[in-house]
Amino acid sequence: ISPPLAYCSGDSSACRLCLESKLTVMASEPSMIAKCAAEFVGTFLLIFTVGCNVLGGSATWAAVSIASVLMVSIYALGGISGGNFNPAVSVTLGISKAMGGPGMDWKTVGIYAGVQSAAGIAAALCYSALFGQSFNLSPAKGFEWYHAGLCELLYTFMLTFVVMNVAAAKKNVDEKNQYYGLAIAFTVIAGAYGAGAVSGGCFNPAVALGIDVSSAGLGFGWCGVYIVFELVGAALAAVLFKVVRPADFDGEKSAATELVSEFLGTYMLVLTVGLNVLGKSKAGAFSIAASLTSMIYALGDVSGAHFNPAVTVAILASGRCPDLTPAKAGSFIGVQIAGGIAAAFTYAFIHQGATFALGPVGDSTWAGVGVAEIIYTFVLCFVVLSVAVSERTKASHLFGLAIGSCVTVGGFAIGGISGGSLNPAVSFGIAAAQTLNGGFFYKALIYSVFEFVGGAAAAGVFKVTHEVDTAVSEEKFSA
User: Fold this and answer.
1) pTM
2) What do you get for the CA distance between the two ends of the chain, in Å?
3) Is 437 helix (H, G, I), strand (E, B) or coil?
4) Which end is more exposed in the chain, N or C (fewer Cβ atoms within 10 Å of the end residue's Cβ)?
């Protein structure tokens, strides 16, 4: 049996593993002992890696290290236990099943959560013994409990929401995607660099509990606050999973479903932008790219996962997506901008009113900004068209990584010139939040013009380079 889509306990008719198991010998189903052992090992490795990175002083690469151990553990053990390694994930699955969707029963949720918590405590005690010290769990200096709590809620939501969409959604029974582990792990990179500067970036009750228990001599109790917010985030993920995938709950998809998808994806993208900038992240562009990658994988088959008005314009102008009418494109752009603005005011709240300006960086000029934004928005939109729209060059499994990597490319390349917005929803959000501190909103309009030009140029070049797609479409129509 090929590895299942992670995060199913093995008893759901909506999971590929369960479906395939019915076609093979029933004795091949892992026992509960095997599943618990897998959950213990995966959770232990995750939290031990967290502690070693923190105590070892790995400031720049810590999030990548932690995300990587999560990813490899999911791929290694997903076929045994589902690879939850996080009580919040298990709770999300429990709520989803209780609402009539894919997931697992509450008995299994309870067993898994207990094993994960025990593994978290054991791992924390081990890294404390290894280093001869521990570190305490608490909001970063200058932040209150509700700032840290909101970060934990939002990024636990993101992690568990991505899990549900890439690994538990019924579409995966037939799709058998290979990107589920990457998509889930990248939510850690998205949250750790930005939100981590506020809360420490747990996004996992087993992490919070392990850290708090191992550092009880320095103070104990914050894990309770963190866990409450994390579980609220998990519940929110289950509810919104039902909203964006009503078919998994015997409902019907509507236009509102796609709009919610576009709002959520854009919101998490712009929130990650703001938290990385205000938190002075050393890997901002990569973290932002990771958030885009994860949300594209989660929602690509729901709304197309544009999350960017320039991308929507590029796809519309390409003429290769008949379902995207001008009216639909306009509604997408509206909710994308709304999501960007909502996210911007959220990061401003978390950072107690702090914002940042949109405009030329340092000694850069507006002309430089224009060139930079046009070229790298072009790169982003052209790659979207090539790997997600074109029949000839479509990347069935790597499309999200390819598109997200464009943000890594542009963010590092022109971050010192224009800031690397590449997205009118990002530009509108940054400018809207900056009005709280005397900023000027018109700058968003200037950036957006550049970005729309880049998107339109991408559509024009795409029509030339991918003209073969049109010929193929005509042949299919004739046939």
Assistant:
1) 0.92
2) 37
3) helix
4) C
